[in-house]
Amino acid sequence: MAFLFQKFQEAVKTLSKSPTFARDPRQLQFEVDINRLFLYTSYNRLGKNADEVDAEEIIEIANKASFADQQMQVQENVHSQIKTFCLRMDEILIPNEKMVNDHLKLSQQANSSLHHSGLCSANAVSKQRPLSQADVSQKLKDKLGYTLNIKPSQISHKNSGQGLFLDGAVDLGAVLAFYPGVVYSPAYYHYVPGYHDEQNPYLIRRYDGTVIDAQPWVCRGDGPERFNGRKMLENKLDNGDDDVVERRNPLAVAHFANHPAKGLLPNVMICPYDFPLTENSMRVYIPNISFGNAEVSLKRFGSFWFKSGISRNSQSQVPTLKTVVLVATRALEDEELLLNYRLCNSKQWPEWYAPVDEEDEMTGKDESSR
């Protein structure tokens, strides 16, 4: 697998310089990212039994496939991994919840019986508690081979604070974390707390202009908490999202990933993931809710967004929730996860920010993702 990994890394560097990519810096960056994600997530999907022929085929496809086709394949690859994650979460939580409910019914029946008989016994009914977030995290590691922890960052600058750490091992192209919180389309930028004065450090922006605010999520509780969409929103619109999401999701912590210090390279990258809302059984594990009307569609002209009159979702049979996940850019084991924030050139960088030369030179350092 090490040899195949090297082939894929060489393909990434070659394809990023291809003249077929668009010349607009922002579009160039996006296309290079999708190309990398296509290679990385396809490599991951090959699995441990992959051989050189498989790798060569994927690299050849990456050279020939259209940008749209690569986008579709990235979505499919990522969705496949997230589906597996959701199945593992079901295996962890559903039996426990059923057991808790069964014991609750038995307890109620026992209390009723003891009340009528006049007897009292502390051991009449065994007790079963719901799983805490820590319990879920450990059980997920047992099933997937990894989980995520939040602890003091190893980055040396004073503002590093808490960092995001992988507990376990993953291969290149693994989906590691969800960026949780409230999803805003460009039509609702004026509702995003701290967006215009840049006072909110928990914002991330996709290439298509979608902004996700993790501030309402921030710290996870330790108990079996679920969040109703309307309760997560400070401003409640009539058409707000009513979905309920599982707060014990151990991977809903991408907002804790730090930017690498000078001399270090990121080991994860942003991947836009459009979750199909038809996947009802998976919805509870997607830690995002939409602000306002998700059907509003806009077109970008320079720095401005205008309503196009035609919804993107109306052109598709499947409505989606626009989210962000983090994908591993190499094999990782028991280490801090580092993400290139790609702060825009036109703004003054904070003193702790060091451009990531290898990536920023390739992408033109034009897109601000955090």
Describe the structure concisely for a colleague.
The chain has about 375 residues and is an alpha+beta fold. The chain has helices at about 1-15, 25-45, 50-65, 65-115, 135-145, 230, 355-365; strands at about 145-150, 160-170, 175-180, 180-185, 205, 210-215, 225-230, 245, 270-275, 290, 300, 305, 320-330, 330-335. It has 7 helices and 14 strands.
3D shape: globular
What is the number of strand segments?
Answer: 14
Largest sheet: 4 strands, mixed
Strand line-up across the major sheet: 5-6-4-10
Low-confidence runs (pLDDT<50, min 5 residues)? 118-126, 235-239, 301-305, 307-315, 361-369
Query: Can you give the helix content as a percent range?
Result: 25-40%
| Termini gap | 33 Å
Give the overall pLDDT as a whole number. 80
**Quaternary organisation of the protein chains:** single chain
**Beta fraction:** 15-25%
**SSE string, helix = H, strand = E?**
HHHHHEEEEEEEHEEEEEEEH
Radius of gyration: 23 Å
The total count of helices amounts to 7
Structural class: alpha+beta
How would you describe this structure to a colleague?
This protein has 370 residues and is of the alpha+beta class. Helix content is 34%, strand content 18%. The protein is built from 7 helices and 14 strands. The protein has helices at 2-16, 25-46, 52-64, 67-117, 133-144, 229-232, 357-363, and strands spanning 146-152, 162-170, 175-178, 181-184, 203-205, 211-213, 226-228, 244-246, 268-276, 288-290, 298-301, 304-307, 320-328, 332-333. The strands form 5 sheets. A 4-stranded mixed β-sheet has the order 5-6-4-10, with no helix packed on it. It has a 3-stranded antiparallel β-sheet with strand order 1-2-14. A hairpin with a 2-residue loop joins strand 11 (298-301) and strand 12 (304-307). Helix 1 runs parallel beside helix 3 (52-64). The chain is globular. It starts with a helix and ends in a 7-residue tail after the last helix. The relative contact order is 0.15. The model is unreliable at 118-126, 235-239, 301-305, 307-315 and 361-369 (pLDDT under 50).
